[in-house]
# Entry
Amino acid sequence: MRWIGRRQSTNVEDRRGQTVKRVTGGGCGTIIIILIISMIFGVNPLEFLSNIPGGEQSSVTTDTEYQGTQEDNELAQFVGVVLGDTEDVWNTLFRQAGHEYREPKLVLYTEAVQSACGYSSAATGPFYCPGDEKLYIDLSFFQELQERFQAPGDFAMAYVIAHEVGHHVQNLLGINDQVMAMRDRVSQLEFNQYMIRLELQADFFAGVWAHHAQKLNNILEEGDLEEGINAASAVGDDRIMKRTQGYVVPDAFTHGTSEQRMRWFRKGYTTGDINQGDTFNAEEL
Ligand SMILES: [Zn+2]
# Structure
């Protein structure tokens, strides 16, 4: 991906070097507030895996001496450029539709972080918290993407960021709320199906982003699209489960299969048309 020397978003909040410790005994008030937050905004089971609300409070200490490695700092700049690209695209698309795009913040952290969605460790992977409209990323995930998921390349990382921004777009469009409102009305099994559709739509939006970012900023280099598609495939639930459990449990899918994720990402990229991404009414996913 062509990114060096390009505009970086000013919406990156660098919290690397902060140590967040979970302090128990947050009190009933905290438990209730966090429960309400999670009920209202809902949490994505996979992206919020270790994010079980438990009335925790956290203490934050900042290491003022913190200096990331050169590799990490370069990655942070890259993330800033990709976020900037998502702003360019979604500002344009929202404006064209007569809406205003509210740009999300992106928090870089190391090891653990406190968000409006609770306490999360880096093991959670990148996530979006609708409660504070922020994306959270520990840069070590990108290494995991290369090694554990075997999805190397800078565009693989760009896809992951664009997918999380896709969740923000869903939040702004009210789609997230609509899905979460189903939680108490349908069975867990049915709700999982809605979650899959939500995830596949975020993949579709990532593809729409790639389509327009290419048009606006000419970002793609040879092989980039394949890197993105490969990443969409690598983080499909069936692949993740095979890797972690050795077998696949279809009912537990929350992100869609590798094939579905690739297909929706590709559809977004090919059409660039946000109206083609109604995964909720699609007969075939
Ligand atoms: Zn997602």
DSSP finds nine helices and eight strands in the chain. Strands lie at 12-14, 18-23, 57-62, 105-109, 112-115, 118-121, 127-129, 134-138. The longest helix spans residues 188-217.
